[in-house]
TrEMBL record, chain A:
Subunit structure: NDH-1 is composed of 14 different subunits. Subunits NuoA, H, J, K, L, M, N constitute the membrane sector of the complex.
Span of domain NADH:quinone oxidoreductase/Mrp antiporter transmembrane: 134-430
HAMAP family xrefs: NDH1_NuoN_1
Subcellular localization: Cell membrane; Endomembrane system; Membrane
Main location: membrane
Protein name: NADH-quinone oxidoreductase subunit N
From TrEMBL, chain B:
InterPro entries per record: NADH_UbQ_OxRdtase_su1/FPO
Enzyme kind, highest EC tier: translocase
PANTHER family: NADH DEHYDROGENASE SUBUNIT 1, NADH-UBIQUINONE OXIDOREDUCTASE CHAIN 1
Transmembrane region(s): 14-38, 82-104, 124-144, 165-188, 200-219, 256-276, 288-309, 321-342
Keywords: Cell membrane, Membrane, NAD, Oxidoreductase, Quinone, Translocase, Transmembrane, Transmembrane helix, Ubiquinone
Assembly behavior: NDH-1 is composed of 14 different subunits. Subunits NuoA, H, J, K, L, M, N constitute the membrane sector of the complex.
Localization terms from the record: Cell membrane; Membrane
One Pfam family linked to the record: NADHdh
This protein's name: NADH-quinone oxidoreductase subunit H
Reactions catalysed according to its record: a quinone + NADH + 5 H(+)(in) = a quinol + NAD(+) + 4 H(+)(out)
Segment forming the signal sequence: none
UniProtKB/TrEMBL annotation, chain C:
Compartmental location: Cell membrane; Membrane
Family according to the record: Belongs to the complex I subunit 4L family.
Record's keyword terms, sorted: Cell membrane, Membrane, NAD, Oxidoreductase, Quinone, Translocase, Transmembrane, Transmembrane helix, Transport
Name this protein carries in UniProt: NADH-quinone oxidoreductase subunit K
Organism: Svornostia abyssi
Molecular function via GO: NADH dehydrogenase (quinone) (non-electrogenic) activity
Subunit details: NDH-1 is composed of 14 different subunits. Subunits NuoA, H, J, K, L, M, N constitute the membrane sector of the complex.
Main localization category: membrane
Function: NDH-1 shuttles electrons from NADH, via FMN and iron-sulfur (Fe-S) centers, to quinones in the respiratory chain. The immediate electron acceptor for the enzyme in this species is believed to be a menaquinone. Couples the redox reaction to proton translocation (for every two electrons transferred, four hydrogen ions are translocated across the cytoplasmic membrane), and thus conserves the redox energy in a proton gradient.
Catalysed reaction equations from the record: a quinone + NADH + 5 H(+)(in) = a quinol + NAD(+) + 4 H(+)(out)
Residues annotated as transmembrane: 6-23, 28-47, 59-83
TrEMBL record, chain D:
UniProt-recorded name of the protein: NADH-quinone oxidoreductase subunit M
Pfam families (UniProt xref): Proton_antipo_M (PF00361)
Species per Swiss-Prot/TrEMBL record: Svornostia abyssi
Coiled coil: none
Family from the record: Belongs to the complex I subunit 4 family.
EC class of the enzyme, as a word: oxidoreductase
Spans annotated as Disordered: 502-591
Length: 516, 343, 99, 591, 118
């Protein structure tokens, strides 16, 4: 009676602690924050906890910058620390910092014990870092779930509001179906390739001629579907608007931004590294998904009166744009995708910051009608949102324009010109809703006194006590306004001088070798 | 070929496997009425009375009479019950008990009439996990029974049983981790052999683990002082309130079989299984007897505790499990890990 | 090794789980069906692991178990929270978001 | 390499931003100052422009986004010189005009106005395809906000319609532009570069040219607007505040026409030749439709709006004559129409103020009796609008028709009807507003001093320009000839019709090295075909050692004696124009 | 191999056999005198309130959740424990980190009052 391995000496894997340091900072922060949340003193819970969370994210960001340019395998090929990982980690940290600031005085952390809220946030961030660094199917799945599960809870943190719990449960169910599908797909890929390591899968596809094995193709198909759920790609996007609307707004902002970055990031790595050998199979499939997503997202957004729902659909559409960068599987594609992810992050955070601020002022702050007159009364809030909307719509001199430009260029270069045209068509449709928001904000009061509301604008704000713009003297927390302002400026800055960001994106793209 | 969990390569021809299973089953089942009777007699002695002494010499046939009585009862069940599950639940209980019996090693591989035969039902590389797996299924036997009865006492009993079982399963499981670390195997026979190799029973280095495991075993078998699931004073009979006749007999038998099996497992993990102390190396045919003797001793301990300790309050039960046993088991694991690696 | 049989079982379980998620109303049952889906994948993983003779699939399976447990825990937590708020425990009745 | 173009480009936006930070009436004043400085810059450029030089002047060329191959390349040549002047002028006028009125949230208003000027100037100056797209799209943003914030009734649906129309075009253009850059780079093995001259040098296959041309055309035609893409016009014109509308109609539409000249013709010559007829017919339809609609409207704004459709039809006609004369006429006409639009809109505002706020010509009438000065200005504007002989509009339309006549006689003849129709609607507007019965709510009075300050210079300019259109023609001719040359070559016609261009083309045809003069994309200097090196600009000042310079009259193409005014020096060895040492012109402007 | 599990199957079958035998013994051996009240659930002699839908109390869900989490601890510890000796220090660190994280969770759960039953 022998055990095969009990006798064999197993070497512990080499661990590159420096490479793991951003992750360690996040997880350590999560633990500390959780414990700090146990203290009874209000100032500790309400201010020290978010501050420590900020510090942890800041440390992770600093370590990320410190590690820039490193290209090393961590933990025996389970994760890879390269510029793609680091660039996306930077985005996560930005989103994390913004989310902490947005939640600082929000009701959600108060209702869910501060420690828990921020701890979950940090854990989710850690999951994202794991996910985008994953070079192994196991790490991929682990990262995905470490990302998702805290988010399920975060969605439900505003427990007293009816929609919150519901959105959490809904997200959990749909998200788990997505995870399970992805898992099943990865199981098949493993079955076909005989390894869970990306590099080995790619080698197996290249060497063993399994590129047309039914097992592998089924696996790839299921994996596409699973990731589509996470990235809210149509037709697997239906949960998105409901969940976005139900979740507390800072969490929505986080989900909208960071989850998408993570999902697209791992899609890039999985398809462009592990499955590059079967690119002629998945390229058309993802391209078609992207096209459907662009149309469905944009058309869906048209009829929305809730800003959060609108941004949810817009996020669906943006995921479609981003997929174009995945489809072409070229350096330019990855570069464009990374750039657009950054632009997307900046634009959405600016927009959500304004929504959070507006919600602090008015109970219907999420409704498009709550924005009326914002331009003249609160220009500090109106400008970021304006820039965000223009950027998302792809107006020039904003980050969004450059990003779309890069994506279209990558599509054309990758012989997917029609996808570039789809991006443009999507942008055209999107004008309909982005401009509606901008117009609502900047319209001065109607000249005709009898005219209650101008035609073409969504129904005005419900009349309620204190609902009139003059009466709302509740001031938006300054840190929220700060977030909006900073990211609003960034939209412009990237739009005017994108070269540094492109350099980063180029480095990130260069870390994926073996592209088409 | 690399497998993480070790592979056990040895197994006998099919006919021997079946035959030995039947034998072990028969022997194991014989121990149950003995323990049953012993409990009643010993409890009687503890409480200054005789215990059963009418049926057969010294009441020796009392268990048989009890079973006969139960089987000749009229079959009835509450109209609120869910028939299929109501019938199934006790069957699950007895199945898990007997299935666990298969893992108990009564000795190592011996030659019987020229054929090597393992003196155990099965010896697999995941022996401990096998035990825990069936332990987890046993949970369904109790909860389904209580829930399917459609009676509030049954249901309350089932809930308590559920909470108690899962609470103590954690601690029990953790307590074994230390043993696994020291033995480097999950196979029960290999654990015994590891104790032989170390020259000391694991109860010595793993004394904390032993205590925790034993306590958990009391809770897992719903024995006093953890018999809240069937606390007759509060819940009439707990999850088996509505059972009479065969169903009750099955539950009863399963419970006592569980005592036997858990005693055996405890003996295997901590008390050296078929080993004798002080390096005494008897002929192999003695091994099963050693195991049975240890089972007997532990069963006596079970009964002794029942006679001695009062029943815990429910919150005490849970607090004890979570706040004392769990940290204790964890610390034990950690310390063991350090010791194993450092040595 | 006749991997086909393992796969067939795994696919069937997966499909049962998926259809359960889509069809059933009770969130507890939906959670169970989710578990079913994950465990179907586990079965496939372990079957493949044996086929290839390497341990990757087994490690994967253990991690999947953990993840599954976490999902269920969170799911249970949410259900309990909804229950506390006396919301209907039926996903079709959760209509506040017009899902 | 010079910073001056960048300074001019960003000046209005910078002043507007500065103004936005200041309180009270200062933003308006600052905006005037900004637009005035810009105007000064533009005037200096016109004066300093070196007519004899080929290619771009005052070139600024920096890499903007290396990763995408986008350059920050600005330059002035004959095509955009006067359009820049027009832009600066009209913006100055409109800013003055806007200062006459109290605006709610004036700071934001002037901010948008300044950004708008920068955007338009950027589109005109851009010598990089992507940069052009950026500014072209950006032009819309300020007008969107101005209309949303300060527009008339139903402004939101109107402006949404406008923006969607124009941005749909722009976005198509974006795709087309990206495709152009990528496809042009594909064959060469170079990285993608959106520099216009680089793209032109590498060229595109005929198949890709076609769809790309159509995408670009869609964007330009919407912006103009041309039939059938003019659907936004009635709503948009009604909703915009008048000063903005004057700019929108006077300047922004010209950028679209300019786009055809700058981008479509040189970059996609095959497609331009293929679609020539289509474009001509569209132009023709626009002329007729615009004229007829202008005649049947009663709202003065819409009369002007539809008239601009007709006018831009003429401009398009000139461009797609694919012929030097027509193109020159198109540029001239662009400037003319812009010059007319501002006073026309301004007068419209004055009329509306006198007619109780109504802009309907049925509510006007008889205003002239009490406002003779206004009437005089109005009549001059009207005459310019209907292209009276003697006005520069006449010259423009004449050149256009001449150009078309050479290639497409039938279309030219039909287009002439448009000229007649123009007089009909222009005169109708004038008569109904100024004469006739006095309208019910009309309370006529003459110009105020402030009104005069705005109106007088512009009207004087119209007159001056009518008297001396050569100012623009001279400076534009080289560029226009170069622009139409590739497409003309495709059509199989001799390149250019003006002496110089013709001769140059002939000389080029004889040369084995290459057909068209080569321009170095980085310096904007002509490349010496013999050596393949960029001719050193400083060396150009001196006559080449090889031989004597030949002096050519640009209008006749005949060789003239050295020292003749306006003559261009040509180096016989290279066939390239060089700096005339006799004239002693400077290369760079130093204002 | 799977053949090692054959005896287990025998045990399961035997257990099931006994269970089934007992379950149906009453039907064959027992008396049959139907009285309606026999079919009432036990209610200590009070008239029975028949209820069908019992629900688990919330605290039980809490326990269930805790169980799941901490049982996973065991799931992870077993494989590591198995190879502890051969992995050496690495596994020790691993276990240390793992248990520390769990300890944090445990402390949190304790302090938040999830472990107190009233």
């Amino acid at each position: 009676m022998t055990t095969l391995l009990a006798q064999a000496k197993i070497e512990g894997p080499e661990i590159d602690w420096a490479g793991l340091s951003p992750l360690i900072a996040l997880i350590g922060g999560s633990v500390i924050v959780l414990l700090l949340g146990l203290f009874r003193a209000r100032p500790v819970r309400e201010h020290l906890v978010p501050f420590v969370a900020l510090a942890a994210i800041g440390a992770a960001l600093g370590l990320t910058i410190w590690q820039w340019g490193e290209n090393v395998d961590l933990i025996r090929g389970a994760m890879r620390l390269d510029d793609l990982t680091l660039a996306l980690t930077g985005l996560f940290c930005a989103a994390g910092i913004a989310t902490v600031l947005l939640s600082w005085r929000h009701i959600a952390p108060r209702e869910s014990a501060h420690g828990e809220f921020y701890s979950l946030l940090l854990a989710s961030l850690a999951g994202m870092v794991v996910l985008v660094g994953a070079t192994d199917l196991i790490t991929l799945f682990l990262g995905l779930e470490l990302l998702s599960i805290p988010l399920y809870v975060l969605c439900a943190t505003e427990m007293r509001r009816e929609g919150a719990l519901e959105s959490g449960l809904k997200y959990l169910i749909i998200g788990s179906v997505g995870s399970a599908t992805l898992l099943f797909g990865t199981a098949f890929i493993y079955g076909a390739a005989g390894s869970t390591n990306f590099a080995e899968i790619a080698a197996a596809i290249a060497d063993e001629g399994i590129s047309d094995s039914a097992l592998l193709l089924t696996g790839v198909g299921l994996a596409v579907i699973g990731l589509a759920f996470k990235a809210s790609v149509a037709p697997f996007h239906q949960w998105t608007p409901d969940v976005y609307e139900g979740a507390p707004t800072p969490v929505t902002a986080f989900m909208a931004v960071a989850t998408k970055v993570a999902a697209i990031g791992i899609t890039l790595r999985l398809f462009d590294v592990a499955l590059i050998g079967v690119s002629d199979v998945w390229q058309p499939a993802i391209a078609i998904l992207a096209a459907i997503t662009i149309i469905v997202g944009n058309v869906g957004a048209l009829g929305q009166s809730s800003l959060k729902r609108m941004l949810a659909y817009s996020g669906v559409a943006q995921a479609g744009y981003l997929l174009a960068g995945v489809v072409v599987a070229s350096q330019a594609g990855v570069e464009a995708a990374v750039f657009y992810l950054a632009a997307y992050t900046v634009m959405n955070l600016a927009a959500f910051a304004v929504i959070v601020a507006r919600q602090a002022q008015r109970p219907d702050g999420d409704d498009i009608g709550a924005l009326r007159g914002l331009g003249t009364e609160r220009p500090l809030l109106a400008w970021p949102l304006t820039l965000a909307m223009l950027g998302l719509a792809g107006f020039p001199l904003t980050a969004g324009f450059i990003g779309k430009f890069a994506l279209i260029q990558a599509s054309v270069e990758g012989d997917y010109t029609w996808l570039g045209v789809m991006i443009v068509i999507g942008s055209m449709i999107s004008l309909g809703y982005y401009l509606k928001v901008v117009a609502t904000m900047w319209m001065t009061s109607s000249p005709e006194p009898g005219e209650a509301k101008p035609a073409g604008i969504a129904p005005g704000p419900p009349v309620m006590a204190g609902g009139s713009p003059e009466a709302d003297d509740a001031r938006a927390p300054w840190e929220v306004v700060l977030v909006g302002g900073v990211f609003g400026l960034l939209i412009l800055a990237i739009g005017v001088y994108p070269q540094p960001l492109f350099d980063l994106a180029q480095d990130a793209a260069a870390s994926l070798s073996g592209l088409l | 070929m690399t497998t993480v969990l070790a592979e056990v390569g040895f197994y006998e021809p099919v006919w021997i496997q079946i035959l030995k299973a039947l034998v072990i089953f028969a022997v194991g089942l014989q121990i149950v009425p003995i323990v049953l009777l012993a409990e009643r007699k010993i409890l009687g002695r503890f409480q200054q009375r005789y215990g059963p002494n009418r049926v057969g010499p010294f009441g020796a046939l009392q268990p048989l009479a009890d079973i006969g009585k139960l089987l000749w009862k009229e079959e009835f069940r509450p109209k609120t019950s869910i028939g299929f599950l109501f019938v199934l639940a006790p069957i699950i209980s007895i199945i898990t008990a007997t299935a666990t019996l298969a893992a108990v090693p009564f000795g190592n591989v011996v030659d019987i009439f020229g054929e090597p035969v393992g003196l155990y039902g099965i010896d697999v590389n995941i022996g401990i996990l096998y035990v825990f797996a069936f332990g987890a299924i046993a949970f369904y036997g109790l909860v389904l029974g209580g829930w399917a009865s459609g009676s509030k006492y049954s249901f309350l009993g089932a809930m308590r049983a559920a909470a108690q079982l899962i609470s103590y399963e954690v601690a029990g499981g953790l307590a074994v981790v230390g043993v696994v670390m020291m033995a480097g195997s999950l196979s029960l026979t290999e654990i015994v052999e590891a104790q032989a190799a170390d020259g000391m029973w694991f109860v010595v280095p793993q004394f904390v683990g032993f205590l925790v495991f034993l306590t958990a075993a009391f809770a897992e078998t719903n024995r006093a002082p953890f018999d809240l699931a069937e606390a007759d004073a509060e819940l009439v009979g707990g999850y088996n309130t509505e059972y009479g006749g065969g169903g009750f007999a099955t539950y009863f038998m399963a419970e006592y079989l569980n005592i036997v099996v858990l005693s055996a497992i405890t003996a295997t993990l901590f008390l050296g299984g078929w080993l004798l102390p002080f390096g005494i190396d008897p002929p192999t045919w003695v091994d099963p007897l050693v195991v049975i003797a240890k089972i007997g001793a532990l069963s006596f301990f079970f009964i002794w505790i029942r006679a001695t300790l009062p029943r815990l309050r429910y919150d005490q039960l849970m607090s004890f499990g979570w706040k004392i046993l769990l940290p204790l088991a964890t610390i034990n694991t950690l310390v063991t890990a350090i010791l194993v690696v450092v040595w | 090794m006749a991997i086909g049989w393992y796969l067939a079982v795994s696919v069937i379980i997966f499909c049962i789980g998926l259809s359960g998620v889509l069809v059933r109303r009770n969130p507890l049952v939906i959670l169970l069906c989710l578990e079913l889906m994950l465990n179907a994948a586990n079965l496939a993983l372990i079957a493949f692991s044996r086929m290839h003779g390497n341990g990757d699939g087994q490690i994967f399976a253990i991690i999947v178990m953990v993840v599954a447990a976490c999902e269920v825990t969170v799911g249970l937590g949410l259900i309990v929270a909804i229950y506390r708020r006396k919301l209907p425990i039926d996903v079709d009745e959760l209509k506040a978001l017009n899902g | 390499m010079t910073l001056h173009l960048s300074i001019m480009l960003w000046l209005p936006a910078a002043f507007a931003l500065l103004g936005a930070l200041l309180p009270g009436k200062l933003p308006g004043r600052i905006a005037i100052l900004g637009s005035l400085l810009t105007l000064a810059y533009a005037v200096v450029y016109v004066v300093d422009f070196d007519t004899g030089k080929d290619g771009l002047q005052y070139l600024t060329d920096e890499a903007w986004i290396e990763a995408l191959g986008i350059n920050y390349k600005l330059g002035i040549d004959g095509l955009n010189l006067f359009l820049i002047l027009l832009t600066a002028l009209l913006w100055f006028g409109a800013t003055l005009w806007a200062n006459l009125k109290e605006w709610e949230h004036a700071r934001t208003f002037f901010l948008w106005l300044g950004i708008g000027e920068t955007a338009v100037l950027g589109a005109l100056l851009a010598q990089d395809l992507a940069l052009f797209v950026v500014f072209f799209d950006l032009m819309l943003v300020p007008f969107f906000f101005i209309t949303v914030g300060w527009g008339g009734k139903d402004r939101v649906p109107a402006v949404t319609k406008l923006v969607i129309y124009t941005l749909v075009g722009s976005l198509l253009m974006l795709t087309a532009a990206v495709a152009t850059g990528v496809l042009a780079a594909e064959g060469t093995g170079n990285p993608v570069d959106f520099d216009l001259s680089v793209i032109q040098a590498s060229g595109l296959s005929e198949g890709s040219q076609k769809w790309i041309f159509l995408f670009f055309a869609a964007a330009f035609l919407v912006k103009m607007p041309a039939v059938p893409l003019h659907g936004w016009l009635p709503d948009g014109y009604s909703a915009m505040p008048l000063p903005a509308l004057a700019l929108f109609s006077g300047v922004l539409s010209k950028v679209a026409a300019y786009g055809f000249l700058r981008i479509s013709l040189p970059l996609f010559p095959d497609a331009a030749a293929d679609f020539q007829e289509l474009m001509l017919i569209l132009a023709l339809v626009s002329i007729l439709y615009g004229s007829v609609m202008a005649f049947s409207q009663t709202n003065a704004r819409l009369i002007l709006g539809y008239s601009s459709i007709a006018q831009l039809g003429f401009i398009t006609l000139g461009i797609f004559a694919i012929e030097g004369t027509g193109a020159q006429g198109a540029i001239l006409q662009s400037v003319n129409h812009g010059l007319v639009t501002l006073p026309a809109m301004f007068i419209l505002a004055l009329l509306a103020a006198r007619a109780g706020g109504s802009e309907d010509i049925r509510d006007m009438g008889g205003i002239a009796f009490k406002a003779p000065v206004l009437a005089v200005f109005f009549v001059i504007t009207t005459f310019a609008l209907l292209a009276m002989p003697g006005s520069s509009n006449f010259v423009g339309e004449f050149l256009i028709l001449l150009g078309v006549f050479k290639t497409q006689m039938a279309i030219a003849i039909i287009a002439s009807i448009g000229v007649v129709l123009a007089s009909v609607y222009a005169l109708r507007l004038f008569i109904r507003a100024m004469h006739n019965r006095v309208g019910a709510d009309v309370d006529s009075r003459d110009l105020s001093l402030a009104d005069g300050v705005i109106l007088v210079p512009v009207v004087l300019l119209i007159i001056a320009f009518g008297l001396y259109p050569q100012l623009a023609l001279e400076r534009g001719e080289k560029a226009t000839a170069a622009v139409v040359a590739p497409a003309r070559a495709i059509l199989g016609e001799p390149t250019g019709n003006y002496g110089l261009a013709e001769e140059e083309a002939e000389a080029a045809a004889e040369e084995p090295a290459g057909a068209a003069p080569q321009i170095d994309p980085t310096t904007g200097q002509p490349i010496d075909p013999a050596t393949g090196q960029t001719a050193d600009p400083s060396a150009q000042g001196a006559p080449p050692a090889g031989g004597e310079l030949i002096y050519v009259d640009p209008t006749s193409g005949q060789q003239v004696a050295p020292g003749t005014p306006g003559a261009i020096a040509i180096d016989p060895a290279t066939g390239q124009p060089v700096e005339d040492p006799a004239a002693g012109a400077v290369n760079e402007v130093t204002p | 191999m799977l053949r090692s599990y054959l005896p287990a199957l025998v045990f399961v079958l035997l257990g099931a056999g006994i269970g089934t035998l007992f379950a149906f013994a009453n039907r064959m051996l027992g008396t049959k005198r139907r009285v309606p009240h026999k079919a009432d659930p036990y209610e200590c002699g009070l008239p029975s309130e028949v209820k069908h839908n019992f629900k688990f109390g919330i605290s039980f869900y809490l326990i269930a959740m805790l169980f799941i989490l901490f049982d996973l601890e065991v799931v992870f510890l077993f494989p590591v424990a198995l190879q502890l000796a051969s992995f050496g220090t690495f596994a020790l660190i691993e276990i240390g980190v793992f248990i520390t994280l769990l300890a944090v969770a445990f402390v949190y759960v304790w302090r938040r009052g999830a472990l107190s039953w009233t």
